[in-house]
Design brief:
Elements: H1 37-45, E1 52-57, E2 62-64, E3 68-75, E4 86-88, E5 98-110, E6 133-135, E7 140-156, E8 162-171, E9 175-180
Parallel strand pairs: 2-9
Antiparallel strand pairs: 1-3, 3-6, 4-5, 5-7, 7-8, 7-9
Length: about 190
């Protein structure tokens, strides 16, 4: 606007600029862009998922050849594990309040000796009832880990949770396991 309050031509000399008002609020901008699933999926992929590490039993990360070894998942406190809610920065979501909640699709245990489990929803457990077990057949050092496949849900504001039509598989940090061999000795005394 010029000092006289009338619209003045822009720098290119085209149609004059017309002042409508000043705002920092995206809700006040005419023709607000629509939030799409591609943006929500991208935010889901950028979620800081919690790390899960594999713990074994027998304790101490030492087991024996031909002994059933029990595996279970333990989640770190940092990041978002299944069921926890991540509030996405509204600036990234075109001003909308969006929350993402990871869900568990499944685990795949990688035992470190070339064998992996089939996908399962089990977080494993301890002796004797744990249902994720593996028996090593050779001695040596192996690195066992779990791969977690996350699904997700999102909601706008305080709306209902809706599914995200995508998954993310994260290879978690490994646990070094020492597989030893025991030898029985008979002594005549």
């Amino acid at each position: 606007m010029g000092p006289d309050g009338k619209a003045k031509p822009n720098a290119a000399g085209d149609t004059p600029w017309l002042r409508v008002g000043t705002t920092c609020l995206p809700d006040a901008v005419p023709g607000r862009p629509t939030l799409g699933m591609a943006t929500i999926r991208a935010a889901f992929h950028d979620t800081a998922f919690a790390r899960a590490r594999v713990l074994i039993q027998p304790e101490g990360n030492v087991t024996l050849v031909n002994l059933a070894t029990f595996f279970r998942v333990q989640w770190d406190q940092a990041g978002f594990q299944p069921g926890e809610v991540d509030a996405i920065d509204p600036a990234r979501m075109l001003g909308y309040r969006v929350a993402i909640r990871p869900t568990l699709v499944g685990y795949r245990y990688v035992f470190g000796d070339g064998v992996s489990s089939a996908p399962t929803r089990s977080a494993g457990g301890v002796y004797p009832g744990g249902d994720v077990r593996h028996t090593y057949t050779r001695r040596g050092q192996v690195t066992a880990r779990v791969e977690v496949t996350f699904g997700g849900e999102f909601r706008l504001g305080d709306g209902s949770w809706l599914p995200i039509d995508d998954t993310v598989t994260v290879a978690m940090p490994g646990t070094r396991v020492s597989v030893r061999e025991a030898r029985a000795v008979l002594v005549n005394q």
